[in-house]
Model the fold of this input.
Amino acid sequence: MLVLGISAFYHDSAAALIRDGEIVAAAQEERFTRKKHDPDFPAHAIAYCLKEAKIDAAAIDRVVFYEKPFLKFERLVETYLAFAPNGFASFRKSMPLWIGEKLFQRDLLLRELKAIDPALGDKTKLRFCEHHFSHAASAYYPSPFQSALVLTMDGVGEWATTSAAIGEGADLRITREIHFPHSLGLLYSAFTYYTGFKVNSGEYKVMGLAPYGEPRFAKLIFEHLIDVKDDGSFRLNQDYFGYCTGLTMTNARFDAIFGGPPRRASEPLEQRHMDLAASVQAVTEEVVLRLTRALASESGLRNLCLAGGVALNCVANGKILRDGKFDEIFVQPAAGDAGGALGAALAVYFQENQGAAIKNAKRPDAMHGAYLGPSYAQSEIEDRLKAAGAVFTVVDDAQLIEKTAAALAAGQAVGWHQGRMEFGPRALGNRSILGDPRSPTMQKALNLKVKYRESFRPFAPSVLREKVADWFELDADSPYMLLVAPVKGERCRKMSEAELALFGIDKLNVQRSDIPAVTHVDYSARVQTVHPETNPRYHELITRFEALTGCPVLINTSFNVRGEPIVNTPEDAFRCFMGSEIEYLAVGNCVLQKERQDPALKLDYKNAFELD
Done:
């Protein structure tokens, strides 16, 4: 049975294809259109999925949308009525759009599907899955568990903002929910907005900024904004928020208790903003830990699956693991709305094939390392690079590893474009910019000269799975860069009294460990374990780097600049290479040095994309 899953019309549109319960392909639309967080119908991603599966549209048995538009419309109307007359202007503006387009999303979907191929637009094949069930299915069915507790947390789906489910064999059922407007995701987004970052894309910046501050506002948040019970259930005080009436995330009462209006994106970050980030991060961690402790005690289950946008908070995930209430945790790498496409397809497959056994009793999981996107044959890479004007050398596999490891050991920034593109927001060693983590200047240099982004942003380490416990306080699989762990104590350097007295961004340039470029200011790191089973080439590169340097760790950041989607094609990689200060590029077995390229092809990527 072939099932096509779709998420669209909000943000991070995507498509995923399932064959008899096995994941064949999945990709976000942004990677094809080059429009970050593209919300439009994922026509390009669907076409890719069909091509990857080597099928035509007529072979698809079911097409599944990741949420139920009528329930979402019901929530919108009931919310406006509950808060009337506040928000009438927003209501009047949005209602025609909803009635004319989104309420009748079934017809819109069928039109878009027919535009790709009439066979896809067969209305008897179309199904809808509730938003949080799509999230839960995306985490549980690919996990390595035969039974697990599943916790999903995000902004909002139709009504649910938080849900708990139990997975047993092929059966998955939601057991409880917290409903809008009470949302941990929206609380975090409110502080994202208030600290001057974009909602639905800047939340990870708040998480990265948090260690520079002190959680001195946490008590205020608990006193005024959120009422949390011992079991983790919570309610938000709507007197301080504006999102129900569609105006702004926060309001004047929020401004009054936190010391002023929201920061504009162009304004400098102050210590207060860092303290706000630290505070909402601390509150989020406390709520999540209360939820997981209560659910572990109630269910007796020792495996946990996580999905939804809040599950991308890898600091909280690391604390759940260290809390010890669960033996193992699996986080869906595309935990946000993109992953809803995958979950919707899996949900319908197992609903309509009740006797099907789940095919996830393998290690590390059934996501294939999240390498589910397009790949390019060597001959095609060469043709595409030639057409782009690139100057390159073709090398064999051994030379590729040797030359790239040597470039890294020499302190060069390396673009690494190999195999199938990753699904989800993280580059995991196939569409990555790599660097030497031992360099005390690499973190700042990559941020300012390659990524063109804020200097405070941390980078993640990729480490050989077999060596992770030698360098980090972690001895578990973390293939998707979704667990934060402390750097091993013996690898750390004690700070001086003068260094300890530093505040905020001044802490950035202090060398804290043997791998300073991936050690955050609180001595933590967002760890990716690299496995030979899922990515043998990347594993071999790190192994060779270790032979040269004694260090089995590389900096791994996504292959893009600020505001740009992660690169997809060889041409995307070459453009980013020519538009940034990356010095060395490996695309398949093609090796490129910056100094050998035509200077006329240099691009201004620093100003090519809007702030993310």
About this structure: The longest strand covers residues 160-168. DSSP finds 20 helices and 21 strands in the chain.
